[in-house]
Amino acid sequence: MGKNASLIMKAFGRPTDAKAVGSNGVWTYPGMKIRDAQGKTYNAVRFTIQPTSQGDGKVIAVEVIPGAILGGSQNAGGPSGGPGGPGGGPGGP
Predict the structure, then answer these.
(1) What is the Cα gyration radius of the chain?
(2) CB 90 within 8 A of CB 73
(3) How many C-beta atoms lie closer than 10 Å to residue 68's C-beta?
(4) Is pLDDT larger for residue 64 or for residue 85?
(5) Tens of pLDDT, residues 67-86
(6) Contact 27, 59 (CB under 8 A)
(7) Residue-level pLDDT at 77
(8) CA 58, CA 68: separation in Å to the nearest integer?
(9) Contact in structure between 50 and 40 (CB atoms under 8 Å)
(10) Which residue has the higher pLDDT, 90 or 19?
(11) Percent with pLDDT over 90 in the chain
């Protein structure tokens, strides 16, 4: 947490699902293979991105998700700042 959203984009690419939730963006990456210390397997990760005044976003939450997550639209946020809100998502201003 606290990392720039651009680092997430470099590491994982464009999210399969990106949407605005309040003033934050929520990016979901399915098709992952994540195993925790207890051996439980997760197949998606979700990042909550908070827009910053520098024009990039900051990761404020990370969640691993069990089960399949089917993708949505990469442009779910529409023209008003792109997914994730202004500066907080791919395609934002």
Answers:
(1) 13
(2) no
(3) 9
(4) 64
(5) 754 544 433 333 333 444 44
(6) no
(7) 38
(8) 26
(9) no
(10) 19
(11) 51
Cα-based angle 62, 43, 19 (whole degrees, multiple of 5): 50
Tokens of 1: 């947490």
- What does the block give as tokens for 73? 């639209």
CA distance 60 to 73: 22
- The helix/strand/coil state of 18 is strand
Predicted pLDDT of residue 74: 39
The Cα–Cα gap between 62 and 26 comes to: 10
Task: Please give the angle made by the CA atoms of 21, 46 and 65, to the nearest 5 degrees.
Answer: 120
**CB neighbourhood size of 43 (10 A):** 16
Q: Concatenated DSSP letters for 23-63?
A: TEEEEEEEEEEEE-TT--EEEEEEEEEEE-TTSSEEEEEEE
Find all residues with CB under 8 Å of 26, minimum gap 6, and list them: 17, 18, 19, 20, 46, 47, 48, 49, 84
